[in-house]
Amino acid sequence: MKRDERKPEWIPDLVWSAYQRCKEYAAWAESNSAWIDSDDMLIPSRQDLEIFRKVLFDRQCKSIWQIVLTRTNDSTAIEVDESRSMPFQFLLWTLRMALSGPTSSSLIPAKERSDRGGKIAQLAKRLGRELEFISRKGHVPLDLSAPLAIHLESTYERYRDRDVDIDEIDVAMMEYDEGPQAISLIVRDLFFSGEESIFGVLAKSARTWANTKPDEYRSDLTRARRNYFVREMTRYFNVNFGQPHRASVASLVRCLLDLEMNALDVTRNAPVTRPASPAKSVRKEPIVPSTTRNPKKT
Fold this sequence. Notes:
The chain has 298 residues and is an all-alpha fold.
């Protein structure tokens, strides 16, 4: 940890204070071996501090802080809007997520999507019809339904007491407390109801996915990561501040990815049809900025 850092003349006091608090937390986490790898905005990471330092001491990124601070004084924003209530954590979290790059699934070529999606849809539809046929004969055989019920219950029990990031798994969790009878009904609806079953849903979604295009048409991962970063940060500025702020995005690309880019390049990679109104709310309930917590408490 550097101890001789001096506040750059272009950095507002509020930003510098937030950086110092982040350093204090980092020093505490380092000395207590308490660093946590998490995607939670409330938990600073090593990467957050490094991002903060790089952007903070880069003169060409000074416009970032003026933009971010305009949101803190926005009287139209509600209190739970992270871009207002915890602007620096929100910025660092967004930068960290943008730097992570696109998911591997988003880069699957169109031809492979078409082939695999079509095959999945065909198989799912066929399996769904077979199971529905059995269901229409009367009671679903226990040899088929019981193992599914047991597996469903054990899977639920595994996750019931765990903190699961719903956005990460992108699936709706279901709670129940009616015992085996409810589970058997769930199994019937999930697996043996034809078009309405999980296989019917899978067939439809697979057909939809088969017609999508990849985010990038190149095998160049460096360019794919750059383009992803540009799109995410353009969206961040456009949604939260009403403008894409392309020059600032270009400065962040140079600062954090060490790649040259100008505002016109940003426009080509992340076109915006019209300015977005600043978001009124991102979360549904108030949250407390992590850097305001006592770093000595766990």
